[in-house]
Amino acid sequence: MRTKVGIDDIAVYIPRLYVELADENRPEKPTEFSMARKSDPSKYLHGIGIAKMSIPDTYQDSAVLAANAIFELMERNNVQPSSLARIDIATETGVDESKPVAAYVHGMLEQKYGKGSLNRTSGVEYKFACVSIADALESSLDWAWAGRSNGRSSIICATDIARYPLTSPGEPTQGAGAVALLVEEDPRLLAIDPVIGTHMEDEDDFWRPLFSTTAVVHGKHSERCYLRAMEGAVDNWAEQAIASGIINAGPGESLVDHIGPMSFHVPYPKMAEKAFAYLLRHFWRGLPRWKAVVGEISDEPKADGYKKREEFEKAEADYMKRFMETHEFQAEYLDKVADGLVHAKESGNSYSASEKSCLSMLLETKAMRGTDLAGKRGGSGNYGSGCKAKASSWTVQEGWATCAKKFGHAEKLRHRRPVSLAEYEILHEGKPFPDGRKFVAEPESEFVLVDVTSQGYRHYRFAD
Ligand code: HMG
Fold first, then answer.
1. For the chain, how many structural domains are there in total?
2. Which of 19, 51, 218, 266 has the smallest count of CB within 10 Å of its CB?
3. How far apart are CA 78 and CA 448, in angstroms?
4. Is the CB of 223 under 6 A from ligand 1?
């Protein structure tokens, strides 16, 4: 029998600065940001689903965010460096074209655990836009399933700073953060099924050329790529799940009925909600319950009923909005997906770190609420522009709630401060503060970037 492998614990690092896009208690009240961008705060809160976006301080880059998440994970679990076979990093906002973030993180951790303590621990940087976390995790699982771990664990960490040009349509979907996963045999949180679905295409939806610090994006096209790839990956997962007997959907049942909590890549919460709606429609078609939905919101639009593709796409989008308002959709969405999206509403997009950060929020929220998830199967859907999606499933383990209650996720979201528009724009553009300040908020017992030499080498230290 294959060894049970999966996620034993999760640690999230969230920068302590944020830009307020909308006031959640008074969505109609303009914010400094919405006024400057001549936009409606309700568009941010209800249209895309983001209230605040996290931004890093001057001493934070993707390596620092990762090292802080990993250090917390190691300390909380008393993980000895010698027990780690690999510390792999997933990122699309790395700090060097050659030296991986994994090497800089190694150096930071050795400042705490002793020089040479991680000499027998490997590390690499994975890149495929936001989906790289799924590739990094899959590689670690394959290695453990192949029987090569010899009792040692691995840490997978996704870390990113999502940045679009000031005033661009992508600007309100920025964010930053890191999430570290302890991957072990007989995990306390989630045992992952050896069934992973993939869908990949060569697409021009979003990219960041070597000369640019901000991404180029075809926003509306990127949404369509996300939905198409996610459906393809889930179909590929379903084929394998059925063939291997992991899931058997009976008559009148949908595969989704056999999946409880779900977590998606979240560029902004509305996107994940839409993805879930498209998947439900896909898997409900042909079932009696879909007939009931159609009875409420009419038949689906058909492409051959429209002269222009744009007209059909608009009819499709309107139809899906109506579906998302039905009781049938809302009940599934609130039960399975919504709790995790609170992370993205409060923090924005953190690219590769987004899906697992939302999973952390989902598990912590359900644990605090006393929901019984032990033994339930859940699902993860990852998407990376360019483009590729991955779909996977996992079973929640007996000890999950004790573990999830210690994440401290909601507390980290509370322990932050807003920045003014002027501070945000200075940080975004990497300019000096006119009043001579070196940073916005004092570091709090964490790794910081000290300097970057004229040759581009980076120095870090732990600021006590
Ligand atoms: P936009 O043009 O600013 O927004 O771009 P919009 O005008 O289409 O409005 C957005 C929604 O708000 C619409 O709803 C409006 O109706 C609604 P929808 O029709 O989509 O359901 N709205 C309002 N709602 C309430 N009150 C109002 C109001 N006004 C409008 N007053 C866009 C939005 C997301 C395209 C833009 O922000 C963008 O380009 N973002 C970056 C790209 C992105 O996040 N794409 C998502 C898929 S790709 C992905 O996930 C990968 C990624 O994470 C990168 C990676 O893989 O590395 C990005």
1. 1
2. 218
3. 22
4. yes
* CB of 195 shorter than 6 A to ligand 1: no
Is the beta carbon of 383 within 6 A of some atom in ligand 1? yes
Phi, psi dihedral angles at 378 (to 5 degrees): -125, 175
**CATH code at position 207:** 3.40.47.10
**Model confidence over 38-49: pLDDT tens digits?**
999 999 999 999
Contact 440, 19 (CB under 8 A): no
Give the nearest ligand 1 atom to 223 CA.
47
Report which ligand 1 atom has the smallest distance to the Cα of 171.
37
- Cα 383 to middle of ligand 1, angstroms: 16
Indicate if ligand 1 lies below 6 Å from the C-beta of 68. no
Q: Taking a C-beta distance cutoff of 8 angstroms, is the pair 189, 382 a contact?
A: no
Is residue 201 within 8 Å of residue 80, measured between CB atoms? no
Q: What is the pTM of this model?
A: 0.97
**133 neighbors 51 (Cβ within 8 angstroms):** no
Q: pLDDT tens-digit profile of 22-80?
A: 999 999 999 999 999 999 999 999 999 999 999 999 999 999 999 999 999 999 999 99
**The domain containing residue 45 runs over which residues?**
5-463
